Amino acid sequence: MDWLNSILQGVLVGGLYAMFAAGLSLIFGVMRLVNIAHGDLVVMAAYLALVVTQALGMGPLASLLIIAPLMAVIGYGLQRWLLNRTLGDDLLPPLLVTFGLSVIIQNGLLEIFSPDSRKLQAGAIETATIPITPDLSIGVLPLVQFLVAVAMIGALQALFYRTAWGRAFRATSDDQSTVQLVGVDNRHVFGLAMGLSLAVISVAGVFLAVRSNFDPSMGPARLIFGFEAVIIGGLGNLWGTLAGGVVLGVAQAIGAKIDPGWQLLAGHLAFLIVLAVRPEGFFPKVQA
Amino acid sequence: MSGAFTITRGTRVSRILAVGAFAALAALACAPLWAQASSLNLLTQIFAYVALATMWNLLAGFSGLVSVGQQAYVGIGGYALFALTIVGGLHPLVALVAAGVIGGLIAIPVAGLLFRLRGAYFAIGSWVVAEVFRLLASQISSLGGGSGTSLPARIVTGMADGRQAREFMIYWTGLALVMVVLGLTILLLRSRWGLALRAIHHNELAARSNGVEVTRIKLLVYVVAGFGTAMAGALIFLQKLRISPDAAFSVNDWTAFVIFMAVIGGVGRIEGPIIGAILFFFLRQALSDLGSVYLMMLGLVAIVIMLRAPRGVAGWVADRFGFEPVPLERRLASSKPNIESKPESAHV
Questions:
Q1: Of A33, A96, A106, the CB nearest to B302
Q2: Which of A137, A243, A271, B318 minimizes the number of CB atoms within 10 Å of its CB?
Q3: Is B127's Cβ below 8 Å from some Cβ in A?
Q4: pLDDT tens, residue order, chain A (288 aa)
Q5: Is B293 on the interface with A (CB under 8 A)?
Q6: Is B340 exposed, middle or buried (0-12, 13-18, 19+ CB in 10 A)?
Q7: Do B251 and A220 touch (CB under 8 A)?
Q8: Under an 8 A CB cutoff, do B125 and A111 touch?
């Protein structure tokens, strides 16, 4: 029953990893950009939530009403004024510029908020559980987090395949020059995609902040978790990122159960095994 | 007209600079005569960073393998040095070379995994690998686990006769290391593999269809980088005398700073990392008291350079004045003075 409990927790944590992964996958899908600052932006959203909840006395989830649009605007601006200039055939500029951004965000947070770890208080929901059997119960907060991840990925999927925005995203992804012929401004489309990615990130950041302690240095590890979930799930598949997140979460839970020092290692090993055995991931995008 | 043109690689500037470089090398080799211990220490650190940045540049600048995980090999080199001297009883200098070989050997299976990832995903994958080695190192209880260990006094004192001899030895090892790394890189890039690398850089598909064995050449480069980076790592921790997983596999110290040097100096140019490392150390001496603000400034400078002068200081000088200090390509030159033709291919 102990093991079942660990695995269940792992599955639910997988929802959070899927949120990291969805934002990463989205911008890679639309503009082939890998954002090294992704994890640091998650942590930045967590700190924004801290500021908003303290200043306005809102609950963490309610604070998303402010933070998500704010992060989306930041994302749009970042893409239009900085990252669009780096896109092209050369791999280095976008990687190095986002790497520089990562250093700036990390040290900026350190400068403003100090290296002390913080946590967001969400009240009674944090400790509430749903009993399943006498030995097994599910925490309400992890469950909400998982369901939000599922809903978010469902919404992104619908946006991509059912709306005009989604058509523009997919068309730009397929052929950047042709979309311009039919009147799509790809610079604007890229801005929208980054804005959307940062809105997704802000939800992940708030759940991260409620779930556990956070500090300015933990961004890179969030980038790595998201990246591993993307590769395990299969590049270019949004539902795959959920599967990837769950695999990663379960692997870490099993590792932690064996030895606390093995938690992260087990997750990385799961990723490396998938890379060795099935490099296209479990649910690769179907090639047209 | 036949006979009026010859194929050369050197330029007048490159020959003058080569003479200058030999003079500088001679001065550096004699540095124990004229420099204080603290200066030797600083110079050794610069040598190690030039070696690291040159290896990163070989990967990212010349071979399109952008890695943010080279701290894996710094850590492997450092830990190999400690293990081989403490457990294996080797002399530190022997252990340093052996650490390089171990780094090169480990690079082979790692490449097998990482080469499945393309472009930017290769970069983050390399970071995951570095994390795996960091976590593994913290499981080695005989080397202090997560808190690390110091090099025992008997090994340190057994290295050479007296403190000064030891400091000189570490300094000359650093100088030799940077010569080996630079020499190896220049030889590699001037060989037919170097030509193949340039072909891959310009158009991988076309290179492949002309029979260039892209994967094998990239593997060769990755292994050479693992070798050089691990030796630099061994030197760094021989100098520090203390190792821990977080210090040995630090992404900030061994990758962020190294990338910064390569970017300001000039990615894809031999002299770039040397210029970058010197500039970096000047900035560090002047500004490191500012702490995290200093790091933010480094990030900002790297972004601005990448956007405004993506070929760095060395590239800017080369474009502006036509300097080619370390020419890698052959060019058609008139045997009459003052009529030098353009290089056969523009360096991208």
A1: A96
A2: A137
A3: yes
A4: 688 889 999 999 999 999 999 999 999 988 889 999 999 999 999 999 999 999 998 889 899 999 999 999 999 999 999 999 998 888 889 999 999 999 999 999 999 999 999 998 888 888 888 888 888 888 899 999 999 999 999 999 999 999 999 999 999 888 888 888 888 888 999 999 999 999 999 999 999 999 889 999 999 999 999 999 999 998 878 999 999 999 999 999 999 999 988 999 999 999 999 999 888 888 776 543
A5: yes
A6: middle
A7: yes
A8: no
Chain A residues in contact with B116 (beta carbon < 8 A): 275, 279
Instruction: Provide the CATH number for the domain formed by A2-115+136-277 in this structure.
Output: 1.10.3470
Tell me the whole-structure pTM to 2 decimals.
0.91
Nearest to B302 by CA among A13, A127, A102: A102
Between chain A and chain B, how many beta carbons pairs sit less than 8 Å apart? 123
Interchain contact B290–A (C-beta under 8 A): no
* Environment class of B347 (CB within 10 Å of its CB; exposed 0-12, middle 13-18, buried 19+): middle
Pairwise CB contact (< 8 Å): A104 & B128: no
How is chain A split into domains, by residue range? 2-115+136-277
- Give the single-character DSSP code of B340: B
Residue A36 and residue B124: Cβ atoms within 8 Å?
Answer: yes
Q: Which residues of B touch A28 (CB under 8 A)?
A: 120
- Determine whether the interchain pair A107/B292 forms a contact, defined as Cβ–Cβ distance below 8 Å: yes
